[in-house]
Every structure is written in structure tokens, then in C-alpha cells.
Fold:
Amino acid sequence: MSRTKVVPIPVMGRHNINAYLLLGRRPVIVDAGTPGSGRRIAEQVASHGVDPADVSLIVVTHGHIDHFGSAAELHRLTGAPVAGHVADLGPFRTGRAREPYLPTGRMGRLMARNKNLHLRVEPFEPGVLVTGETDLDDFGVAARIMPTPGHTAGSVSVLTGEGDLVAGDLIANSFFGLIPGRPANPPFHDDPLLNLASLRRMLDLNPTRLHVGHGTPLEPDRVRRWASREHRRLSRLGAAGRIRARTDGAGAL
Structure:
């Protein structure tokens, strides 16, 4: 089976918001960026020698508009179906993230005031509905979609045969990607404890590197150390009754 190469596609800044191009027998795009970035993503795909019309699939990692904002546009530009998890169908079908956002810290509290996070973007209907672990061999890459709920109910990651984990917002770099290589929570999590459990489950699979939605790739051992500290921190907050988690579930519309 051919090797799958992971190529970052910057959507905003150098590393602030990333999509990814998976190169195997056929190309796959992971994440669709902010609204209005579909053409930029397609042009960057072409700059890597790939005809956007050859893209076999667009995987959306979760229902926040900086990850699915241009999914409908990118679908039109490539003709590729979009894959998304059933638990985030609500945001995909309405074009709105579930609110209120639940900040993980000061950065999230500041960002939650940004009106751009509360926009309605063009909705889409996934052509490939993810309900569990999903092999992508039929789409031309040696990789699997792995459900990793917690950031949102329908969050997923993509694990290649070589061990590269395209992790969406399962983990991020500090300050929304501004401090490279330093693991941190993204600004929001719907369920911090569930997200940490998903992260540790992925780490148990011994990935070689974590490619994130916000920032540069992360080394697994450094993420493991961070996860241990985060477990202790969340345990203290949980004992004090200070962990906020979304309780409205997911469910399709």
C-alpha cells in the first residue's frame, strides 16, 4: 500500500488555522477552513501538483466554523464528497456552531466575544456520514477516520498508516498556534474530560506526530507529559465542581 504524506495547508497566518492535504493513491483534504477560504485551499492544493478535481474526499474534523466554514464551497470546487460525523450534523446543516462556546481559559473567553465566531456560514450535507472508525482506503489513502469526541460531540481525527495523526482541535499549540510546538487546549471544548480521554486514547496508538488545526506539529511525548498535567488540573477542577461541559448532546437535526 502506498505511503500517505501529510501536507499542511495554511488557511490563516502561517500556522493559526490549518487544513491538510493527504497524498496517497488519491488526494484527500482534511478540514475546510473559515468561510471564504475554499478557493485559497484549492489553489494551495494545486501548488502541490494536485488537480483539485482529483480530490476524492473532504474530511471535516468538527462543527466549528473555522473548520467547516468553506466545506460547501470546497465541495463545489473539487466535486469531492464531504465526510462529517453524525453527532455534528446540527452545525453542518444549520451553518452555525453550537452555542454558547465553552472557553477553556482566558484566550477562549476573549475569543468568544468575536462576532465572526457567531456568524451563520453556508451549510452542507455530508455525503459520507461518519458513525465510527472509518477506513479511507477506498478514497485512496492509507488512513482511518477516528472518532475523538470532546471538543465537540462529533469531533474526529485522521490516523495514517505511518502513524501521523491529523488531530483537528483535539490538541493545539499555545495561544491559538502562536507558540509553536507547545501543547495546549484550543480556546473551547464542549467536554474537557471527554476530550482528554479521546486524546489519551489516540496517544495509546503511538502516533509518530500530531498535526493540529492551530499551530505546528506536536511531538507525542511532549503531548503525553502535557496530558498528564492536564489530567491533574481537571481532577482538581472536577473535585471543586468547576468543570463546564455541554449537556445538550449532539444528535442530528
User: Anything to note?
Assistant: The chain has a mean pLDDT of 95.
